[in-house]
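## tool: complex_structure
## caller: assistant
## args:
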Amino acid sequence: MLGEGILKGLGETARNFVGSYVSAERLTTIQYPEERIAPIEATRDFPFLVYDGADWEAGLRCVACQICEKECPPKCIYIVKSTDKKPDALGKLQIYPVRFDIDISVCMSCQICVEVCPFEAIKMDTQFELSTTDRFGGLLYDRKELAKSNEYYHSIHPIEAKKVDAHLAEEKMKADAKAGAAAAAAAAKAAAAPVVAKPAVPATPAAAPAGATQRAEGEKQG
Amino acid sequence: MAVAENKTEKPEGWNRPPVMKPDGEGELLEVAMGPHHPSTHGVFRMDVALDGERVIRLKPVFGYLHRNHEKIAEGINYLGSMPFTDRLDYMCPLTNNWAYALAVEKLTGQAVPERAEYLRVILGELTRIVNHASSIGFLIQEMGASGTPLMYAFKEREKILDLFEELTGARMMCNYMRFGGCRVDATPAWLDAVRKVLAGLPRFADEFENLLRGNEILMARTQGVGILRPELAVNAGVTGPMLRASGINYDIRKVDGYGLYNRFKFRVPLGEHWDVYDRFMIRLLEMRESFGILEQALKDIPGGPVMDSKAKLRGFRPKPGEAYGRIEAPKGELGFYLISDGGPNPYRYRIRPPSLINLTVLEDMCLGNNVADVVLIFGSVDIVLGEVDR
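## result:
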């Protein structure tokens, strides 16, 4: 019969229309600003810098190694290294970024900076309501705007953040053990030859964690 | 009305400015369909010469979305191009990732763990379902059924995109595959979520078929329209559902058996009438075959790592040489051709995009048809301009 197919199709539409009143499964949209869907843990949009402790400037994990700047495909990261050193979260002296800018109007949220960072210093945010009337300065984030606490990181990516913390604790333990062993060796050496020994010299290579050697390799390869 | 099936020869004067009708009487009407025509998504133009309603000449004009992807890729390292491949065919980012990863793995001789291969198959087939469902929706929309079938397709697409987001972090710009595996492992909860979505998909396919397949208007508009003869399809290098709708049995999943496709049982649907309706039906049937592949993959997926332990994320330099990695993307053969000179960047980076090459036969399919059918035939080619222009 001519028109049978059309009627069949219309029946399908009618079923869906009526169904939307009785089954919640057929209601697929929500009223956005008032209602929100539950956030998905793995969601990412723009990067931020993680800091430990209360003071964002002192606690930044970033050591300005510039790997992310080099690897960023659209080149939206701009870093200026410091000339002096200050103690980082693990308590050893490190270079820190004087400037760390990300132009999020250029950033394409690819997560490569997160993957290549050996210090777990840069992570992806989930905040997406970032519209501003200032399209140049307003979308160029400096390190103060980018710095977010580790607690915030835990609140948006709980599973991933736990893994990262465990990894960092392990690194710290290794570094401490290494430093302890080196200090003991230095002490023994100092006892054997008190004339040549200088306490500061053995402490420096011993304090360098796995990350620092990784960074040196990275610079060679890049 | 004569349709394109007996138009093997192009009419006189098809390649010069169509001032006069071929028979010398009166002028032809030149119409620029696009770039603002709704069916061309704002980035594609067809210069059509019309004799009344009949198409005498059609010239596709593209390049509005050119982004210099190939040259950029030659300037950055291998890893840096991966997120850019998402933006080629933005309806199916994961198959683009896969093709590129495959090419680099061939270049470096990198092995891929079994679990990663299974994940790739699962994601590739989910992508195929997303692409085919929405491409049918767009085709019907271009026919004039504005909205309903497209929204039905998008309802299902949303569920699959949520799965992508849960695993890869992004709905469309996934950037998930790496050389030697995948970036993150899938949790058992994610695999269960896929099973749950998959359980609902056959019902969606039935609903979609009920809605459209027997529709008399759709049949009248699509059957016998836009015929692509098999010999022309082969000569023009057309691939994917377009080629199979012309009756040629060529599926790279079967021919190459890349990944683990040799392990899965699935059939390749073929068209008999070579027209728009066949292309529409082939996509529906391929979706159903994908359900089968997904079921098998989800049943057999082994444990283990998703990244090869020897794989390097960055800073590797492949030996000088060349490699061509190709997969059966939802739109056809997607290939990446890489030449390495031993440096950290590819010396040459070339993409064989299925959309662009399938588009080359557009004129041959449209000649002699009505101008209203041009939109329909164009829709049945299923292109994404991000891939055509790169």
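## assistant note: Chain A touches chain B through 31 residues (CB under 8 Å). The beta strands of chain A are 47-51, 77-81, 86-87, 93-94, 97-103, 122-124, 140-141, 147-149. Handing back to user.
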